[in-house]
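Pipeline run #58 for the internal structure catalog. This entry was flagged by the ingest filter as a single-chain record with no existing model, so it goes straight to prediction. Upstream metadata was stripped on purpose; only the residue string is passed forward. Reviewer on rotation: M.T. Logging verbosity set to normal.
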Amino acid sequence: MNIIVVGCGRVGSQLAMLFSETRDDVVVIDTNPVAFKRLGRNYEGRTIIGVGFDEEVLLTAGVETCDVLAAVTDTDTTNIMISEVGRKLFGVPHVLARLYTPGRESAYLQLGLDYVCGTSLVAEEIYAKIVAGHSSHVETIGDFEVLRFALKTPGAGVDTLRVSELEREHQIRIIAFERSDNGQSSIPTADSVLRDGDIVLACVRKDLIESFTRYMRT
C-alpha cells in the first residue's frame, strides 16, 4: 500500500514505523523537521516538510496514487481540513482522521469521517483500521479484527454463500448479518445463507484478512 501520514508526533511516528516495517510505501508530512527524529534509524519511508492540507505538498507526497491518508496531527481543525482535501479533491480511497478533542465528535460525524478518538488513540488501532481495507473496522481483540462489510459473492452464477462454508474454509466467525434488500437483521446459524450485498459483521484473524478481502465489496 501507499500511505501518507500527516503529523509526526507520537502517534504519527509509530504509525509510520508500523507500515515501514511491513515494507509498505510511507510518506510522513510535518511542519517541524525536528519531529522526524521520532522515526528512528530503521524508518525506510520518505519525509516532507510542509502543511498537510496544502495541495502541492500532498501532490509531492504522491496523494494522487496513495491508498490511505491518515491525518493524525494534534489539531482537530487541521485533521478535518486534511481529510476533506484528501477525500473531495483527490479522491483518496481511505481517509482516517484523529479526533483530538472528544467534544468535537459531532463535527466528524456530520462530515462522515472515519476517525479514532484521541483520548484512547494508539497507533496500533489506526493501523488495524487501515489494514481492514475494504471494510469498516469495529474492534480489535488480540489477534482478531471485528469487521463490518458488504458481502461480495464469487459471481459466475453464485450469488449466495452458506455461513458454515465461509466459517470452515476461512477460519472466521459470522456474528450477524443484515439483508441488503429489506434491512432485516439476524444472528446466523451454520445453515444460514448469505446473499450478495448483505451487510456482514464478522470476526477475522488479522493474518487472514488479506485473503478474505475477495468477499468484501470495495
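catalog note: The chain has a mean pLDDT of 85.
catalog note: The two ends are 15 Å apart (CA to CA).
status: ready for reviewer M.T.
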